[in-house]
Amino acid sequence: MKECVKNQKNEKFNTYLQVYKMQIIRSLTYKFDVYGNIIMQSIIMLASAFFWKALYAGNDSVQGVGVSDMMVYTVVSSMISVVLTTNVERRISNSVSKGTIAIDMMRPVDIYKVFFAENLAGVTTLIFQNLLPILLIGSIFIGVPVPASKEAFLLFVLSLFMSFCINWFIAVIFGMFSFKVIEMDALIQVKKHLIRLLSGSIIPVWFFPESIKNILSFLPFVYLYQLPLDIYIGKYDSASLTKGLIMQALWVVVLYLMFRFFKKKAEDKVMIQGG
Amino acid sequence: MKNLFKELLHYIDVTLVYIKMAFLSIIEYPSAIIGWLLSNPIQFIVGFATIKFVVAEFGSINGWSYGQLAFLYGLAVISHALSMIFFIQGWFLGFYVIEGEFDRFLTRPLGVVYQFLFNQINIFGITDLIPGIIVFVYGCVKVGFSPSPANIGLIIVMLIGATLIRGGIYVILGSSAFWTRSANDFGQYTQEIFDKTTMYPLSMYPESLQFILTYIIPIGWVSFYPVSGLLGVEEIGIGSAMSVWITLLVGIVVMCVAGFVFSRGIKRYESAGS
Amino acid sequence: MENMIEIKNISKSYHVVKKGEGIKGALKGLVKKEVKVIPAVSNLNFNIKKGEIVGFIGPNGAGKSTTIKMMSGILTPSSGEILIGGKNVKTHRKEVVQNIGVVFGQRSQLNWDLRLGESFELLRHIYRIDKTSFDEMIDTMDEILGIKELQDKPVRQMSLGQRVKGDLVAAMLHSPDVLFLDEPTIGLDISSKYALRKFVKEINEKRGTTIILTTHDLGDIEQLCSRLIIINNGKLVEDGNLEEIVDDIAPYKTLVVEYYDEQIPQHEKCEIISTEGNVAKYRFFKKEITAAKLIEDLGKQKAIKDVSIEEASIDDIIRIAYEGR
């Protein structure tokens, strides 16, 4: 009996592994997408670097951040944006609008785990396809982004993993709104812009007024980009680091609970409608 | 000549029906209205606030005062909004190719480019327009730009040119799908690049990049050159009226190139299925 | 009768990117792309006269849709030319499409979000149809398909049958001389199929519309098509009316005769293909002798207990045509 359960578990895991593999193949198929994405993302990164260089002309350090830190910031931020790529909200809303969600949910696998496996696979491919080329291009044209210390790098990886989870849970919760709202495009845009502007991905939160910085520290956005970037550059002390990581972990938990809650509600709704 | 006029009237007539249908579609999805009303203004108001924070920290951006930046930013957002209303389909050209959506356009007695761009007019682009106008008017007041008829005329001509440049670039990028047959949508990247290069002075970038953005991918003409000309912030070697008319000319040229690339592409169109 | 459609030696090939298998193949594809040229249609020649209903049939992937798409201006032939109403489709696209209607069974030209009437209204403006002839056409269509009760329904709420009705009307609004129907009956229930067939017959009779349809439905073929064009592997295999094709593919019938005993008589104009006890099967060519004459001749030699005639079914005929003889 025990053996059987174990086998079943293995089989399930293999299913997700299969999904993961298929997705990697799928993402490799479109050559043009790959090159196009690298070129576009590199242009954006270079433009950012020039932007900050121009701003820093005549200023050695602003808010305790020097121009070389800002260059590291630009390159690493571009790399993080690769890791935080997801289209799970669109996957869910498409499946709802096409009416296939009921079938998806009836399957003997957990559809959200399938989505997660797909997403993880997507990111794995992207690390080779986009992240490394961007790192290379950034290192050549902007400067090698050296982390502040070994310890900083390890903490960065930990924090980035939590960023990935926060990003994924936000996306999946947004996707579940499509059970209520037919037209998701606008909502996805709202989310995208909020993250773009409030997470520190484009303009570091350092340059925001103190009051806004305070408010942002209670919202999940800064834990997507700003915190891992702070850690990478070494712009932290033990107090701010502890506080940051605890808040980040807290957001992972809160969003996970919200995800569970909405998942239950969504399932009930599909059951009542009968597909 | 008379025939051409009749053709034009016909296209205007059909456009009016398309606009009516766009409004009717919006009413079908009330939740989307709220979404767009929130999303687009948030984007640009927060975007503008960040410029304010940056200027507060760094003083000025490459010699441009806060008011001048608002003027530049406002105009850039307005032309962005106009391009979103009329040319947003360019972002989705890949999708049209993959899904065989051009079948429908090709079996109707109207220009294919026209049908492609206008079959779904994006009325929601208006929600981008409003924050753009607010910031622009604020900028006008700050820099003391007088709303004389001549000035308003120049601004309109400039906006037409800028919108055509943006739209032309969307269509050119989108047309790549005829060759690649991939539905990748570069909209987000395109917008980010446009944001970086039209909402801040181009002169802050290295000269090589300025050269590219002036002569090869003429994004500089979307906002930087005409605004520099109009406000006299930077020495660009041409008068204010001249800079505006060149913008229009560049817009027309980019659009023609886009039309050429598109028409070459549509010949390779292979529909969907077998 | 004048030719409505002239197909002059057209060919069309597709370029397909070959993809490798598995992760290795996908990685390889990133570096090098192999392009394969696949011919879809080769050297097709035929004419269609005004007022004909032509069934364009063939197995999946035979090139039917490709040909219909070339005729309706969606695809351009790699070589050869297509004239509709004497005009070249490639060089006079707008004029030609003003005179044709197209319905693809698997795809709609109607606006998904809006009520059906809005899509009609748009087409009225696109094709410059004046209000009176538009209203007349809607009336006619209402008689055949009962379209008026659907006009206020949003297309996304329609059943497939209703949607196809909407698409048929949409294709007819500008009174085209030629109507292309690509698998119009696919997925339809019996009553919707009936409505569609009635529609095809009536507009053909009343308006003289030339109709070209592709289908896999034998009912469509039997009931509608005055002429069949069968293509396979992109080449024309058969062209003619149903009887002609049957005569061509299966020019013989089989007469089964049961006698009172096992002595089976012969006949010089047919061959015995099998005997089983007192039952014999005679195969005869329709051109050489009629069944009645054969029965009469055989009856003179031996008393006959029972007869029946076996004929190749349309099913068989089409299958033989597809598979090649």
Summed up:
The complex is a heterotrimer of chains A (275), B (274) and C (325). Chain A is mainly α and 275 residues long. Chain A contains 11 helices and 2 strands, in the order ααββααααααααα.
Essential attributes:
heterotrimer, A: 275 residues, mainly alpha, two-stranded antiparallel ribbon, 11 helices, 1% strand, globular, disordered N terminus, C: 325 residues, alpha/beta, Rossmann fold, Alpha-Beta Plaits, 2 domains, six-stranded mixed beta sheet, four-stranded antiparallel beta sheet, 36% helix, 31% strand
Percent helix of chain A, as a range, is: over 70%
Could you report the average pLDDT of chain C, rounded to the nearest whole number? 88
Mean pLDDT of chain A: 83
What are the low-pLDDT stretches of chain A, counting only 5+ consecutive residues below 50? 1-6
Protein chains sharing the most extensive interface: A-B, 41 and 39 residues
Structural class of chain A: mainly alpha
The percentage helix of chain C is 25-40%
What sort of overall outline of chain A do the alpha carbons produce when their principal axes are compared?
Answer: globular
The CATH class label of the largest domain in chain C is Alpha Beta
Biggest beta sheet attributes of chain C: 6 strands, mixed
| Estimated radius of gyration of chain C | 25 Å
Main beta-sheet strand count, sense and barrel state of chain A:
2 strands, antiparallel
Which residues of chain C sit in consecutive blocks of at least 5 with pLDDT less than 50? none
H/E topology pattern of chain A: HHEEHHHHHHHHH
- CA(first)-CA(last) distance of chain A: 34 Å
Strand content of chain A: under 5%
Give the SSE string of chain C: EHEEHEEHEHHHEHEHEEHEEEHEH
Number of strands of chain C: 14
What best-fitting shape of chain C do the alpha-carbon axes yield?
globular
Spatial strand order of the main sheet of chain A: 1-2
Total helical segments of chain A: 11
